[in-house]
Specification:
The protein is an alpha/beta fold. The chain is built from eleven helices and eight strands. Strands 2-1-3-8-7-4-5-6 form an eight-stranded parallel sheet, with helices on both faces. Helix 4 runs parallel beside helix 5 and helix 10 runs parallel beside helix 11.
């Protein structure tokens, strides 16, 4: 049985240790790999979640109902799940006009939802809580990173994903904003769109590192090279091993171990045999242990201030696949919050 008490001191969290949990089952578009329902909704989970289930089986809902909050409490954290209905005010009618901007899909909806999410994450992070966001589409990182970096301006970002998500409005082939959040956070050319003017360029390239990449668009590859952004693909994981990759990643973004860390983990970084119920699955991904080692190593730093677990989609796959993916999501959270094997 894993140890259930965080062993590493927390450098940036206040006592008593508190996890501010936000659930945002937001999917504004059709994913690349599998057709999904077009659910134009941002909804924070509440204790009575029957209405959310009627609209769509959501990843955050499944995580909560499977026992995630108790998992977090068992690790010694107070769970702040109060005011959990606030983001429900950001529900946008599916009948509200939201024409494309260029080829960007549902830009006003994505902007509205992510802006309110940024405020919610900032509420938790500014109180010295560990902000834990359960998604949902990875476009939500526009909000989560904006909120955590507002509270911790010196923070760095570790992005775990099969995809770079750094297309700009000028390079995106699909127009899906889940492929663009990093470019907006960096303020790259083409992101100066009035509807997103609330997003500040909080992310410096020196404070960003990718792990797990294996499905990168041509425009993204050029951006990574032109800006000399540190990225570890699955080739690097295979060549060096996940232990050495993590040491190199941390040495890049947090060389003195004195910066807050935001860990944004898209479960499609894991191999589909590990996490099958996700919308953009790509074979050849991280193993179960590689994914968990990343979280364990970040927890060891004592610097984690924000965690995203994104793209668990219970509408995809058989019941056993959904259960498997939800269980993996829960264990990733636990490992990030300090659970150890001994």
């Amino acid at each position: 049985m894993a140890a259930t008490t965080p062993l590493s001191p927390h450098k940036f969290l206040q006592s008593p240790l508190t996890a501010g949990v936000v659930g945002c089952p937001f999917r504004p578009i059709i994913m690349r790999a599998h057709p999904l329902p077009d659910v134009s909704l941002a909804h924070v989970l509440v204790a009575n979640a029957h209405s959310a289930r009627a609209l769509n089986q959501t990843g955050p809902l499944e995580l909560i109902e499977s026992g995630l909050l108790k998992d977090i409490q068992d690790l010694g954290y107070v769970v702040d799940f109060q005011r959990a209905d606030e983001l429900s005010t950001s529900i946008t009618s599916i009948n509200e006009p939201d024409p494309d901007i260029g080829n960007l899909k549902k830009p006003r909806l994505v902007s509205k939802v992510t802006k309110e999410l940024a405020e919610r994450v900032y509420y938790h992070a500014s109180k010295g809580q560990l902000a834990v966001t359960l998604g949902g589409d990875h476009s939500l990182a526009m909000g989560t990173v904006s909120g955590s970096f507002k509270a911790h301006p010196e923070a760095c970002l570790i992005w775990i994903d099969a995809h770079a998500d750094i297309n700009t409005p000028l390079t995106t082939p699909s127009g899906n904003l889940h492929g663009c959040p990093v470019s907006f956070l960096m303020g790259l050319p083409g992101t100066d769109i009035p509807e997103f003017d609330w997003i500040k360029p909080v992310l410096q390239k020196e404070r960003l590192v990718y792990i797990g990449l294996r499905d990168i668009d041509a425009g993204e590859r050029k951006i990574l090279k032109d800006y000399n952004i540190k990225a570890f693909s699955m080739y690097h994981v295979d060549r060096y091993g996940i232990g050495q990759v993590m040491e190199m990643a941390l040495a890049h973004v947090n060389p003195d171990n004195d910066r807050p860390i935001h860990l944004s983990f898209d479960v499609d970084a894991l191999d589909p045999t590990v996490a099958p119920s996700t919308g953009t699955a790509v074979r050849g991904g991280l193993t179960f242990r590689e994914g968990h080692f990343i979280c364990e190593r970040v927890a060891e730093t004592g610097c984690l201030v924000a965690l995203d677990i994104m793209e668990i989609n219970p509408s995809l796959g058989e019941a056993s696949s959904v259960t498997q993916t939800v269980d993996v999501g829960r264990s990733l959270v636990r490992s990030s919050l300090g659970e150890t094997l001994l």
